Amino acid sequence: MTAAPDPILYSFRRCPYAMRARLALMVSGTACELREVKLSAKPGAMLAASPKGTVPVLVTAEGEVIDESIDIMRRSLAQNDPEGWLERDAPDLIARNDSTFKHDLDRYKYPERHGSDALAHREAGLEVLLDLDARLAGKGQLCGAKRGLADMAIMPFIRQFAAVDRTWFDTLPLRHLKPWLEAHLESDLFKAIMLRVKPWSPGDPIIRFAAPQRTAP
pTM above 0.90? Predict the structure, then answer.
């Protein structure tokens, strides 16, 4: 019998939504065919699957299309969750991240695009960072001592916020959030999902996105 094809993941390396989807797919051991997208030239196959044209998009082996990153995370973890990420979910924190914090992040990073006051939105975003810093105090992670869904869903956006003006960010009194962010960015998991590949075109060789094989102890 012919093995079923891997799901297809349309992704963009630097997109925080795509990052968090890749994090969950990797930790759950969900192998995919990775198709890197050039945002200025989105492939027709992706647009046919998801006309809204945003990444990530996961097309399952059965043809189901999942085009919301948090749904890709929860779906892959529901199938296999070796670290118990679903036990450390925080829907309210994730919803705030995806709404008000993302709103301020975009207008801080791209004020010319939005006609916004970058510093005002930076200060609004900082309020969220201070709240997360307090939450991390004494816990290490957002929902306890171990990384979970909340950490992985939010961390890529904090990474993006920090990178807008790293000199300013480094002056902030975020005693817990800064080491939390750095530890996740230096983790083997994060490094594994940040592979560099050229944008996909029809006919290209398949690039398999999968967790490294573990050797027996």
Answer: yes
Which residue's structure tokens are 């996740």?
Answer: 184
CA distance 135 to 144: 10
Cβ(158)–Cβ(129) under 8 Å? yes
Report residue 14's pLDDT band, with 50, 70 and 90 as the boundaries: very high
Instruction: From residue 74, give the alpha-carbon distance in Å to each of 17, 27, 184.
Output: 13, 12, 20
- β-sheet bridge partners, residue 57: 10
Q: How many Cβ atoms are within 10 Å of 22's Cβ, its own excluded?
A: 31
Q: CB neighbours of 175 closer than 8 A, spacing ≥ 6?
A: 133, 137
| Maximum distance among all Cα pairs of the chain, rounded to whole angstroms | 60
- 163, with CB counted inside 10 A (0-12, 13-18, 19+), is exposed
Beta bridge partners of 208: 33
| pLDDT, mean of residues 56-83 | 97
pLDDT tens figures, 156-174? 999 999 999 999 999 999 9
Q: Rounded to whole angstroms, how far apart are CA atoms 201 and 44?
A: 10
> Which two structure tokens, joined as six digits, stand for 167?
């000199």
Contacts 24+ apart (CB under 8 A), 83-87: 83/27, 83/146, 83/147, 83/148, 84/146, 84/148, 85/24, 85/27, 85/147, 85/148, 85/149, 85/152, 86/148, 86/149, 87/143, 87/148
Q: Residue 117 is which amino acid?
A: D
